[in-house]
Protein: DUF983 domain-containing protein
Organism: Tenacibaculum todarodis
Amino acid sequence: MPKVLNILKCKCPNCKDGKMFYKTGNFLLLKAPKMNAFCKKCNFKFEKEPGFFFGSMFVSYALVAAEMIATAVLFRLILNFSYINVIIIAITIAILLSTFNFRSSRSIWIYMFYSED
Ligand SMILES: [Zn+2]
């Protein structure tokens, strides 16, 4: 399976089969995603050291910025919405995608520092 799909599906970088998260989280129910400490299939340790996922905040920041820019381009430049409506829509999309951003930023981060050997 292509690496991008593994990252988006939050698969283990080692075996590409085990799941990184046992709960995907739900913003509307105020449930945060829950991450496995080890891969259930190959026993790969996801958090290499304490605070390893601190850096995924920067990945998350980049994801949210890209989503907001895409929202602004779509709704302001193409659909010609007013500025206040574009801001409200961009904030709403950022909130609704928060659990997806949390999971995918950690997944991107762990794949960035994983080497096959
Ligand atoms: Zn694994």
Summary: The mean pLDDT is 93. The chain is about 50% helix and 5% strand. The radius of gyration is 16 Å. The beta strands are 21-23, 34-35.
